[in-house]
Amino acid sequence: MNDQQNANDVPRRQFVALSGAVGAATLLTGAAALSGGTAAAASGGDAGPTPDTCPTTPPPPGGASPCPPAQLQGICGRPTDNEPLWNDVQYCVNGTVPPSGQKPDCLKMTPNYIVLHGKPQSTQNYLLVPTCRITGIECPFLETSGVANYWHEAWETGRSGGDVPVQSRYIGFGINSQGARQLNQLHIHMAGVRPSTQRRLQDLEAQGRMATSPSQWAAPANHAPITGTGGDREYRILRLPNLTVNLFDLVYRYVARPNSLSMADQTIIVVPKITATGGFANAFYVLNSDNSLHDGTSTCDRLLVY
Prior knowledge:
Elements: H1 12-17, H2 19-22, H3 24-27, H4 31-34, H5 73-76, H6 84-94, E1 108-109, E2 113-122, E3 125-130, H7 150-158, E4 171-175, E5 188-193, H8 195-206, E6 223-228, E7 231-240, H9 247-256, E8 267-274, E9 280-289, E10 304-305
Antiparallel strand pairs: 1-2, 2-3, 3-5, 4-5, 4-8, 5-10, 6-7, 7-9, 8-9
């Protein structure tokens, strides 16, 4: 159940005012976020069946990325929270058995994130979960240059040849809005997508019906319906050559803020472009939607196949 306070309860001007407490290098937004600057996570191995302890890997150069400062715990979550998915993270990180007594399979472990099975458990349903306490998309820390690039890591982990590959020809990654999710620890779904979704996106690209620059993303000309569970829904569509940018920051700066929308209401889906022979075409379709759009949606579940 979603029992977290709405993101609007902490105005963004208050968040900016907190920046001095955590350092400008961590809380700087804007150009630094667009140029990358995120910490790369180390690769780990498959832990196999439910382990008594989780595998660990050496930290990347510079160690783990920063976590939200204490001043943001009211909106981003507290490390002491009794949240099921956060409890799973604590087991994988330090061996603390969850209150439920059920030990998760820690499929991959890095200083910045872990990978777990999704539910229902399958070979095309995984979750990438930060080792920082972050409730979800409404946490303003996600828009800063200090945060780890969870989207890039999801792609590198879930792609063919990755440490936990999604067993589907066409794959996608998504995050739900605050109101649509059931678990209040940030998690990126790593799953399959329908062949029709991949075809539709390539057709839209050929027709020039998607943005190629973040500044164009919110323009109505770059909105299009895509068929998923429950019929067509409207999405804002952006094509990117890579995932080195901070997608949370792009949504905030080019979609949510200019249109007076709440980040808590947004959903994001990333679909890698795949060639006719099944190879990666060196491009990503980034889809965003919310209920402010006509026939929009606040959940990624309509397009992902678990």
